[in-house]
Amino acid sequence: MITGLDHVGIAVADLEKSLDTFRRLFGVDEAAIHRERVEEQGVEIASFTVGNIRIELLAPLSEQSPVAKFLAKRGEGIHHLSFATTDIRQDLHTLEQQGFRLVDAEPRSGAHQMWIAFLHPKSTNGVLIELCQPKNEDTDRQSLD
Asked: Strand order of the sheet with strand 77-85?
């Protein structure tokens, strides 16, 4: 079940420059910033929390990265909205049955030790939607590992 907004993903061309901008904007301390490379998705991220929402800055690791292609086509800006779920597999199945197009039929590994899956923006009014579930959460007694 989808439980709420987990984070907002923002595509950026220069991670350090963008991180400086957002740190100043929100008064984020350097110690509160999480950094991670997600090779599988071709991105380096820097994330921090504002209120109870995580902001995730995404920078491409190569020109072949989906985020690099996004930047080339649309420029910097909001890349995706990510929603927390307690059962990512069931939600993917339900959403597909309701007619939503899936980018990922099966969850894959993402940042912050999460299982993630995307819905195609053509079926969600142009918004790339991500579902995420902590890897240590096993609500349906069926391991995703």
From this structure: 34-38, 43-50, 53-60, 2-11, 77-85, 129-134, 114-119, 108-110
